[in-house]
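Example record

The entry below shows one chain as it appears in the dataset: sequence first, then structure tokens.
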Amino acid sequence: GTVDSYTERSQAEWAASRVNGVVDVRNHLAVDYPDTSAYPAITSRDLEIKDDIEDEMFWSPWVQADEVAVTVRDGVA
């Protein structure tokens, strides 16, 4: 299947791995970015950077990822 971001992909993998009895998870989800042509200031690369940052925060035990807003514009976060 597909998801909208690497963060969603990682969260799905994490949720599946937490199910009692699961010993291995193989995540074949594909990331399908939305069309950014309506928003010329936002590029698909900006979305990738944003998702990479959010993914790292999701896995960090020191960051409350739901309390941090990530914005990327022209490759700058």
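Notes for this example: The first helix runs from residue 6 to 17. The mean pLDDT is 83.
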